[in-house]
Amino acid sequence: MIKNYIKYFLPLSIALFSTLTSCKKVFKEDNFVAYFGGEVLNPQEKYVLFLKDDEVIDTIYLDKNNRFMHKFDSLAPGLYSFKHDPEYQYVYFDKNDSLMVRVNTFDFDNSVVFCGRGDEKNNFLMELYLKNEADRSLMYDNFDKDVKSFIKNIDSSFAIRKSFYLKRKAEIGWDENFDLVAKACLDFHHITKKEIYPYAHQFRTGENIRTKLPSNYYEHRKEVDFENTLLTNYSPFIKYVSVMLNNVALQKDHLDLNENSLENNIEKLNITDTLIKSQKVKNVVLNNVAMMYLLEDQNMYNNQKFIERYLQLTTDAKNKKEITEIYNSVQNLKVGNRLPKIDLIDTANQPIDINNIIKKPTILFFWTSHAESHFVASHKKITDLKAKYPEYEFIAVNVNDTKINWENALKKYNFEDVNELHAVDFETIRKQWVITKIHRIIILKADGTIKNGFANLFDVNFEQNLK
Predict the structure, then answer these.
(1) CA–CA separation, 398 vs 367, rounded Å?
(2) Which of 46, 112, 127, 315 is the most buried (most CB within 10 A)?
(3) Of 117, 144, 175, which residue constitutes the final position of a domain?
(4) Per the structure, how many domains does the chain have?
(5) In terms of domains, do 301 and 354 share one?
């Protein structure tokens, strides 16, 4: 893919040549001028957002040819991200970099290619990201393995990606600042699997494997810099911290294996408060713990106790507001209520009001083409449930996808006998129905009222909800 980027960028490069060739004139030792541009194939919006630490710096509009270009008079070196709803990716800028990116929304991550000054580093990050994603799709079966087999498997996988990292580092010759990001992308994926294994193995097999772990199993924790604000909003770091906190909390003798229990999650808040001294990093981690918990636990009393502890520890006003809004939305989804109205369409492109179509007990399940393995697994699970519970209606709701991506995914797999709907606006359904975990299930009674708003399709006891 990357070897062919020249043919893709040639027309765009010619169009922007006059702008970019002037870069040498403005690149001086005492300034931080940088350029960011590119092309969006099959755009879903009229603009691209440019962000730093999840905060929008600029909105860059597409021209009539779906191209964009922006000059930054001063752009500090570091990690940024660009977003074309609903997708985003990272981009790293060194001083005076001049980068163009080409993306196709029909296959966003796999289509991202950079060209220009600084392109080699960014293309490396994309390649490593895609290698990690491919590895992630294979890792779940490995959690069933014994300790020795599991470690052998992940060490072998890590060695392959590390060899790739070292080769590209030698070829490109990047500095230590970029290496911080590159190493984080490499290492956190590996050690995240190590943290997940003990509780995933027990959850999947019933065997408590912890006493069989090598004495040096958690040595990697000593190498993690939890105070480094440069990685605060970098998803590999956030994912690692999340699963590490979960693992540590579940190791407590007085806590159960239910990672979503009130006790476990208050323990995560307390561990975060003790472990991380940087308030900036602490706020991000606390917010992540709160977000994950509120989307799982529907016990209103528990939610209130959790929120009280969270508000004691965080100092971020924006996060407080967001978590409070989610808390209020969760309250609206309690048993006996009706679902807030959301704009949905069916496969005939007709608008659907969910509260008008419920005629019998119904299961709503959710999917996105960005989590393809879940998409397939959930539909297969529903097919099995339909045979066992014919008295239930099963409705699939696609979220966080464009209409075209939704339709393409349905054509690719052609799952039958499931009523397929698409959420027109992801942010609305995310907030109103509190959908941010894709395995979430909503169970409705025949009258359309909520029976259970926070079930998990893959919970071993899930079918108890249907009896």
Answers:
(1) 5
(2) 112
(3) 117
(4) 3
(5) no
Residue 180's Cβ-side half-sphere holds a number of Cα atoms within 13 Å equal to: 15
Chosen domain end from 309, 332, 355: 332
Position 461 confidence tier, pLDDT thresholds 50, 70, 90: confident
The pairing of strands 47-52 and 362-367 is unpaired
Distance, C-alpha 246 to centroid of its chain? 17
- Residues spanned by the domain of 361: 344-466
3-state secondary structure of 18: helix
Looking at the domain assignment, is residue 124 inside a domain? Answer: no
Residue 250 tokens read as 């579940």
Pairing status of strand 34-41 against strand 98-104: parallel
DSSP string across 305-316: HHHHHHHHH---
- Alpha-carbon torsion (257, 258, 264, 269), positive or negative: positive
pTM: 0.73
pLDDT class of 22 with cuts at 50, 70, 90 = very low
Instruction: Judge contact between 435 and 429, C-beta under 8 A.
Output: yes
The two three-digit tokens of residue 71, written as one number: 């000059």
Q: Which pLDDT belongs to residue 141? A: 84
Rounded to whole angstroms, the maximal C-alpha distance in the chain is 73
pLDDT tier at 453, thresholds 50, 70, 90: confident
Based on the domain organization, do 145 and 29 belong to the same domain? no
Looking at residue 166, what is its pLDDT? 97
CA distance 277 to 227: 7
How many Cα atoms within 13 Å fall on the side-chain side of residue 209? 26
Q: Are residues 375 and 239 in the same domain?
A: no
Question: What is the C-alpha separation between 130 and 1, in angstroms, rounded?
Answer: 12
**Number of DSSP helices (H) and strands (E) in the chain, helices first:** 16, 15
Statement: residue 100 has pLDDT above 90? yes
Looking at the structure, tell me whether residues 361 and 315 fall in a common domain: no
The answer to whether residues 289 and 269 touch, using CB atoms and an 8 Å cutoff, is yes
Phi, psi (5° rounding) for residue 139? Answer: -80, -20
Q: For residue range 54-67, what is the model confidence (pLDDT) as tens digits?
A: 889 999 999 999 99
Q: How many CA atoms lie within 13 A of 104 on its CB side?
A: 6
Do residues 82 and 181 share a domain? no
